[in-house]
Amino acid sequence: MTTDPRWLDEHGDEIDEDHRGLVYDIRTLVDRRRMLGIFGGIGLTSLLAACAGSAPAPSAGATSSGTASATPSPSASASSGQVDEVPGETGGPYPADGSNGANVLDDSGIVRSDIRSSFGSSTTVAQGVPLTIELTVRDAATGTALVGAGVYLWHCDRDGNYSLYSRGVENENYLRGVQETDAMGTVRFTSVYPACYSGRWPHIHFEVYSDVANAVASGPIVKTSQIALPEEVNGLVYATSGYEQSVRNVSQVSLASDNVFSDDGGIHQIASMSGSVEGGYTAALTIGV
């Protein structure tokens, strides 16, 4: 059999297979997989991209004009199909899930995507910079989207108050809602950017249930955790009217000092952001449970 001239040295001698380089190794690997009829998970595109060199990935951030760029969630691992399990966190003192007084989960109207207004006896609308929250839930071991799971999400308003608990909003139930994950394992809530109140990094609470039926019945909770909002976007939002008290509060706390995110700096809980102050932001996070 004639040797491919690409694998001959300048003297016409055949180059040993171990010294033909990465391109040869990839070609050989692909040929072997074709012979075996196995095509899944080879990651060929990633390997070829590595041959051509790589550039640093952009970070989740914002420009001085108030625009943030979307970046992949650090929790997702596309190459292996696995997703890092999101740390379990406290639900805090204002969950309204029946564990600490109020229970909004059994109220008609709690299953909704737009959580800006109260429902039932009040129609008060929470004000603030628009925020869409996209949470994608996956099986941590396999990376498979959890379809039909129930997600209960809540957070404070731009004054740092929690509906159903804080003084002046005890009779409101805004900024709370339940949704069912779609075919991609994703839920989307329409909300407003929360404040930074004293002692805590800006955050959003959530609970994951096996389905909506369990969520509204206060059934077993699969995971309780929190979403951390990134520093650069916090600064842009808190510079706008209505968030004045957040400016001082956020200057006195960091991810490293926060009593929830300080364990690892919130590496698996920091949302990726896109949008602007004028048009509103989208906070996206993929979590494993």
Automatic annotation (TrEMBL):
Q: Spans of biased composition, class Low complexity?
A: 55-81
Keywords recorded for this protein, A-Z: Dioxygenase, Membrane, Oxidoreductase, Transmembrane, Transmembrane helix
Gene3D superfamilies the UniProt entry points to: Aromatic compound dioxygenase
Q: Does the keyword Coiled coil apply?
A: no
Q: Which domain of life is it from?
A: Bacteria
Pfam family for this entry, one: Dioxygenase_C
User: Which lineage is the organism of this entry classified under, starting from the top rank?
Assistant: Bacteria, Bacillati, Actinomycetota, Actinomycetes, Micrococcales
Region (Disordered) location: 55-105
Q: Where are the transmembrane segments?
A: 36-55
State what protein this is by name. 3,4-dioxygenase subunit beta
